[in-house]
Design brief:
The complex is a heterodimer of chains A (324) and B (267).
Chain A (H helix, E strand, L loop, with lengths): L1 E14 L4 H9 L2 E15 L4 E5 L6 H8 L7 E6 L8 H5 L2 E5 L11 H11 L4 H14 L15 H13 L5 E5 L7 H18 L2 E5 L3 H7 L2 E6 L2 E7 H7 L3 E11 L7 E7 L2 E7 L5 H11 E10 L2 H11 L3
Parallel strand pairs in A: 3-7, 3-8, 5-6, 6-7
Antiparallel strand pairs in A: 1-2, 1-4, 8-9, 10-12, 10-13, 11-12
Chain B lengths: L1 H14 L3 H28 L8 H13 L1 H4 L6 H9 L2 H5 L5 H30 L12 H29 L6 H14 L11 H7 L9 H7 L5 H31 L7
The chains are: A alpha/beta (324), B mainly alpha (267).
Chain lengths: 324, 267
């Protein structure tokens, strides 16, 4: 059970203009700006939930994760996770959480992965039966058999990320924070990682909080979305709610051999390169069948496809809506 | 405790891998040791009575210093810790149920011990076979030798406790470079790494011997050769224990304070 109430965090950032004289000036007088990374962030997440935490770069996603994992002290506000305040009871709190920072590594660079695993076993005081069980499970699901004896520095990014995730789960945490776990991975590895996250959430009732820029991650994994922008929670709801907000728009993609499109109310032409056109239809103004018939009047269509807005487009339109 | 022990073990094993670096280190330390001894030899030839240590005491000091350099060099700091702080990788270390101070302390001990283990034997063996007074002499008795070992361990702890302060200071700075350079030149001199402390003018020496730096290599190396003995030895060891306690205490309090306001850098 995670409960955040009115969390605020401000960072002091030093700034200067480019150039030598500017650099000299800052020796005597430093200029700072204050960035409100988080403004009154409140939400609560129940046990066993899987939540996608999304937002543009610099929105405050990582800061929130850091606060929830006890690494960062907020300026004000409350955060209670399973009865503990992370930054006040850091060592007690972190026993029950697992964290994966997609852009960092927790494996020791020069030693085989299995050595790192065993070190983690000792750090969390995992008893040997639990360790064996978790180890066997993680190794078989994540297919680590071939790679646990390799030093971390010789692994590919996808292999390493699978090991990182395994390393964060050896102590069977109740909550798993994943900060961009699929960053830089190829399609196959992404799918493997997603499948695995789904599985542990389902089988072990592990609460999963996931930040990502990859909308497919969100689509594949999470029922609930928290959208953050400029330090504020903008939307807390399900993916289908987000879709509903945008459902009045459909995208029609056409291949055509000849024709000239005139302006039709309710249809916005997004893109047209010889023989290929993308149109956005506002179904509140014009039904799809009408739109198709209007379009087919203007051109000789060879292929047509109709799609709802993708999650990516929805997020972009939400950004626009909230002006972030 | 077990977690720190296994951390110590993994670091130690890791450190023992770097054989080529060890060969290069041994070569450097031989060259340096011979140069120092040749230089002092010239001085002693001029007037041996003008110096505060016997020449054989001095050569023992120099060879032990070269053999155990890795234990005592204050400027030998762990880059991983610096980069963990400045890049934000410390996030992972903070997300574990461990005491950061103890873990870094253990890590530094392991790195230094593994480095020293690879280097000390060849130097000690060769130095033992060098003709008197150029080589290393055996300590006066077993008691002196055991006190030497104990103070050497305490000196290693003192060095690491001092380095911890440099690591913690990095939390407040963007780059560790400035503080490293400052710490390097000052502590090298004050700890007797450049010239043994007895060679300093009396007034200066008396002050320096009160600082924590005199509790580093100065103490065990001079105890070995019998330059410090008797009541002076007891006094120096008490001072060493005092400084070690102080440095650890300051470090622990400071890191607690630093972590409260730490900003984990990077996204």
């Amino acid at each position: 059970m995670i409960e955040l109430k009115n969390i605020n965090k401000t960072f002091k950032i030093s700034k200067r203009n480019a150039g030598f004289t500017e650099a000299l000036k800052t020796l005597f007088k430093k200029e700072y700006t204050y960035v409100h990374a988080l403004k009154d962030v409140s939400f609560s997440i129940g046990t066993g939930e899987m939540v996608g935490y999304i937002g543009p770069n610099g929105a405050g996603k990582s800061s929130t994760i850091k606060i929830m994992s006890g690494i960062l002290n907020p300026d004000s506000g409350e955060c209670v996770i399973d009865g503990l305040t992370p930054w006040k009871n850091r060592r007690e709190h972190v026993k029950h959480i697992g964290v994966v920072f997609g852009q960092r590594s927790q494996l020791w660079w020069d030693v085989p992965v299995i050595d790192s695993f065993e070190l983690i076993r000792d750090i969390y005081k995992i008893d040997s039966i639990t360790y064996r069980r978790n180890y066997d499970e993680l190794v078989s699901i994540l297919e680590l058999d071939e790679i646990v004896r390799t030093p971390a520095r010789q692994l590919s990014l996808g292999q390493r990320m699978r090991c990182e995730i395994a390393a964060s789960l050896l102590h069977s945490p109740a909550i798993l924070f994943l900060d961009e776990p699929t960053i830089g991975l190829d399609a196959v590895s992404k799918i493997a990682v997603r499948e695995f996250i789904k599985k542990i959430n389902h089988e072990h009732k592990t609460t999963v909080i996931l930040t990502t820029h990859d909308m497919q991650d969100i689509e594949a994994l999470t029922g609930r979305i928290l959208l953050i922008g400029k330090g504020q929670i903008l939307l807390d709801g399900s993916l289908s709610e987000l879709k509903k907000r945008n459902s009045s728009y459909k995208t029609i993609t056409l291949e055509f051999s000849a024709g000239n499109f005139k302006e039709i109310p309710g249809i916005i032409m997004n893109n047209k390169i010889d023989g290929h056109g993308v149109f956005q239809v506002d179904t509140g103004v014009l039904s799809i069948s009408n739109a198709i018939s209007e379009l087919s009047k203007s051109a000789d269509i060879t292929d047509i496809s109709v799609a709802g807005a993708t999650v990516e487009e929805m997020v972009v339109s939400l950004y626009e809506e909230f002006k972030i | 405790m077990k977690k720190y022990l296994s951390f110590f073990r993994i670091r130690l094993i890791n450190g023992l891998q770097y054989r080529t670096a060890a060969y290069a280190g041994i070569a450097t330390q031989f060259a340096w040791g011979f140069m120092e001894i040749l230089m002092f030899n010239a001085f002693y030839n001029a007037d041996a009575a003008a110096f505060p240590m016997e020449f054989s005491q001095l050569t023992s000091y120099i060879w032990l210093q070269q053999a155990f350099l890795a234990l005592f060099m204050t400027w030998f700091l762990d880059d991983e810790i610096f980069s963990a702080i400045s890049s934000g990788n410390i996030a992972y270390e903070l997300s574990r149920p461990i005491d950061l101070y103890t873990m870094w302390f253990t890590k530094n001990l392991a790195i230094r011990l593994s480095k020293a283990a690879l280097r000390c034997m060849p130097i000690l063996i060769v130095a033992a076979f060098l003709p008197r007074p150029y080589g290393i002499v055996l300590p006066a008795n077993f008691l002196v030798f055991s006190v030497f070992l104990i103070t050497m361990l305490l000196a290693l702890f003192t060095v690491v406790a001092f380095c911890m302060l440099i690591y913690i200071a990095t939390f407040y700075m963007l780059s560790p470079l400035g503080i490293r350079t400052a710490a390097l030149s000052l502590t090298e001199f004050l700890s007797g790494a450049i010239i043994p402390l007895p060679f300093l003018p009396d007034n200066v020496r008396k002050i320096v011997e009160f600082t924590p730096f005199a509790s580093m290599q100065n103490l065990p190396l001079r105890i070995y050769s019998g330059n410090i003995a008797g009541s002076e030895m007891l006094w120096s060891i008490s001072l060493q224990v005092f400084w070690l306690t102080m440095l650890v205490l300051i470090g622990k309090l400071w890191i607690k304070k630093a972590l409260k306001k730490v900003v984990v850098q990077g996204g």
